[in-house]
Amino acid sequence: MTAGEPPERTDATAPRIFQSGQPGGVPPLELTGERTLPDVPQENYWYRRHLIVYEWIAARSGGLRVADLACGEGYGSKVLAGSASDVVGVDANPDAHAHAAARYGGGKLRFERTLIDSYNEPRDVVVFLQTIEHVDNPGQILDHCAGLVAASDRPAVYVSTPNVLTLAPEGAERSGNPWHVHEYRPDEFRALCAEHFGRVEIFGLHHAGRLRAHQVAIERFGWDTVHKRLGITQRFYDRFVPAISVNDFTLVSEHDASRRLDRALDLLAVMRP
Q1: Across the beta sheet with 156-162, what order do the strands follow?
Q2: What pLDDT band is residue 137 in, cutting at 50, 70 and 90?
Q3: I need a surface site. Which of 64, 125, 145, 194 has the fewest CB within 10 A?
């Protein structure tokens, strides 16, 4: 696990946690670790960590037809719809689909409940974030994504995954996430993507802002032991985690020597045929 990351978001002994403050008629989703949720203060680190990637893609997808595969709760599809000409959020989970359609559907954003490899509508952009580690047929999924944008004159496929080198505990081969089938190292992820696309650029997601300062405090000054010794761990993170924003993360290209890709939190592949 990367230094600077808040404590684990789930606890098997803790009470069940659901989204709060949902609009009328919108069923709240439960925080299980399978998908990221907004409107859960304890989840804010992970929500913002994923939200920045959606915002980064949205800024590059203006006027295009977008499919958000495995869209989960739907917040990312909503972000993409802010700039795209139309967006389809695709997810097979009935609870996630019902929630997303009720909360975000309408206008140029719609949701379709189906398996990702069954969705066949031509698109300009395919977004597939934090899900390839959940599947046992990643090559087939990437080929399917390539097929969805094959007829576009501005094709792009965006796929992200956590970096196992920073996700897993030190010395472990993988994290303990039960939803993950396979977790990728940067070189392995790039090789997989290059097998299915002609042009591939990998970006690494890193801490910035207050999260970078928090990471430095742990690595250089032992803050993780200090707050435990002072008995303020829970009080500190109860304030710190909800205050995290997208400005506390940054995406850096693999060609930028200022940040090493093997230290990245997540890996984002930007691919074209």
Answers
A1: 109-112, 86-90, 65-69, 125-129, 156-162, 266-272, 199-207, 249-253
A2: very high
A3: 194
